[in-house]
Amino acid sequence: MCPDGYYNMIRSKDYIFDLRFRMVQHARKHGIRATARAFKCSRNTVRKWVRRRRSEGLRGLRDKSRAPHFCPHKTSPEDEKIIIRQARKTPGFGARHLKHEFDLPYGVNSIARVKRENGLSRKRPRKHKRRNDLRAIKQACKPFTRFQMDVKYLNDIPNYYPCIRTLNLPGFQYTIRELATGAQFVSYGDSLSVNYAELTVKRFLEHLQECGIDTTKVHIQTDNGSEFEGGVVRDKLSGFAHTIESLMGATHAYIPPGCCNANADVESVHATIEPDFFDIESFFSRDDFFAKITIYQHYYNLARKNGSRGYRSPLTILHERDPTLDPRLFMLLPCDLDRTFRSIKVGHHVPGLTACRRRLT
């Protein structure tokens, strides 16, 4: 046993450091040979720690990193600058998404390390409960037959809210998402309105009919929000559900109350568009906003690789699933509901559907 004793060993916070320190102190007083015999180690070991203590001080008695001084396959500083520059342009993209989207010739772990070391990683929000994975079921649907619709409030986005106040930009996004391909279609209004939701879905279904889609096989799902008249008991002679089912021949259903995961697909679009678009872009006018959101929607539907769908774009999925469908389905432009429909002097604020139909056709 070493001359320190068992009690000194267990009471020390760093026993290895204390052992080396006492070895050096013993060697200074009694010499190298006597210390090697007392601590039952070689003389070279005693000499090593004596030299470390003399040259580096107490810090020299601690363990040093055994990592190699040079890693031949480590990402070079020039390549790290490329990753950092791209990550700052698209802060909402993870390491795997960056690699697939921009064909970066680096490993996913390398990209993640560079982002983490430079403070560019974003913590994922905690999920309070496990969600069912319904991706396989949704992707098995025939393209352009099942849709989810919802409204995104834009007045809680820090980068965009000043634009609402100073440039009079829209405060609400009416979103329709197709389940099989993941395509999204958006329109914007200054207010939350049943009329705007009705006009958005009617315009969208008319676009499907123009592209050869049989709307009698289309199913649209919404939540129970007031903009979809979810809390109103109607005879379906007018309103949002009447527009979908009676005028356009499609079917409509509300999600079950309290089922927060039923509209997960369209909610995921809302979670994506905020870091991909609203947190990146700056706007100078209402026209500039709609020009940029049009480019983004075309990019999302035609080129953006969706990680939940095997890093394929909606257009690629459409070609794989049903090449007979018209690709012009993706080309519906984002609509400025206020500017388009308020220009027709019908009603107090929003025109009736008959006048809107003449406008759209």
Q: Any overview of this molecule?
A:
With about 350 residues, the protein is of the alpha/beta class. The protein folds into three domains: about 5-60; about 75-115; about 135-360, 2-Layer Sandwich (Nucleotidyltransferase, domain 5), CATH 3.30.420.10. The protein is built from 16 helices and six strands. It has a six-stranded mixed β-sheet with strand order 5-4-1-2-3-6, sandwiched between helices. Helix 2 (about 15-30) crosses helix 4 and helix 6 crosses helix 7. The N and C termini lie far apart (about 95 Å). Mean pLDDT is about 85; it is low at about 345-360.
Keyword list:
46% helix, 6-stranded mixed β-sheet, 361 residues, 16 helices, Nucleotidyltransferase, domain 5
Give a brief description.
The chain has 361 residues and is α/β, with parallel strands linked by helices. The chain contains 16 helices and six strands.
Query: Rg, please?
Result: 32 Å
Q: Classify the secondary structure makeup into a structural class.
A: alpha/beta
User: What's the β-strand tally?
Assistant: 6
Q: How do the strands of the widest beta sheet line up side by side? A: 5-4-1-2-3-6
Shape: elongated
Q: For the record, give the distance between the C-alpha atoms at the N and C termini, rounded to a whole number.
A: 96 Å
Number of structurally distinct domains = 3
* CATH fold category name of the largest domain: Nucleotidyltransferase, domain 5
How large is the count of helical segments?
A: 16
**How much helix, percentage-wise, in residues?**
40-55%
The SSE string, one letter per element, is HHHHHHHHEHEEHEHEHHHEHH
In the CATH hierarchy, the architecture of the largest domain is: 2-Layer Sandwich
Within CATH, the superfamily of the largest domain carries the name: Ribonuclease H-like superfamily/Ribonuclease H
